[in-house]
Amino acid sequence: MLTKPLSTKEFRLFQTLVQREAGIFLSDQKRTLLVGRLAPRMRTLDVPTFGSYYERVRDDREELVRMIDSICTNETQFFREPKQFAFLEQQLLPAWRERGGPKRVRVWSAACSTGEEPYSIAMTLAWHLPGWSIEILASDLSTKALERAAAGIWPIERAEQIPHHYRKTFLLRGHGAQAAKMAARPEIASLIHFERINLHHDAWPTGRFDLIFCRNVLIYFDAESKKRVINRLVDRLDPAGYLFLGHSESLSGLDRVRNAGPTVYALKDPA
Fold first, then answer.
1. In which band, very low, low, confident or very high, does the pLDDT at 271 lie, cut at 50, 70 and 90?
2. CATH topology of domain 8-71
3. 97 tagged catalytic
4. Active-site position among 66, 80, 140, 236
């Protein structure tokens, strides 16, 4: 049972901690959200005050990860930002099919949430690039979200978000007790590797990527963290690669890239 409300001083402590550890800025308007996200865990641990819980997460790395998990907003859906998938299907992938050279593609779905994004990418690539080697890294800050993503199982009503030809080819519908669920076929699930990566701190994957999706996460970062993450993402792009951001995000002021599609960016040609 909580014995005291969250004080302004305690909120500032959590605000600083979250910003330092995850790059996420909790504005004053997020104070009620923070209380709502932390209180259930505090009750589970029988920690009576926010001050005591702050001391717990400050000294316990595992609990810190749980705390950051609890404040992450894992909002996503299949084929979110349809204009970007249309760009893939109608412009980019047909051009790739016509080019010579190795038939392989490496993708990073950063901030993949519960997995709808990387599975949407996997279905799109498998359909349009048959016979190609496809490797997709899907990462997120939230361990809970990654567990759900790796399972590859969703409520059947989510099927409405998926084009019929993809749904028929790449998904399985449950039977009996699982009739209200659907799952990714093994051949699609096998294209995706899931890994917890903190974009603000952790060592990032090595090598370059043909496609990087980092959508609807930069809006939670403070300006300095956003600039650093964007530059690191661009560093990971193949010279002919593409970076996909959320529709409310942009790379204005970054002179290393050019706009290539609907909130899609590519490296500028060398002078």
1. very low
2. Chemotaxis Receptor Methyltransferase Cher; domain 1 (1.10.155)
3. no
4. 140
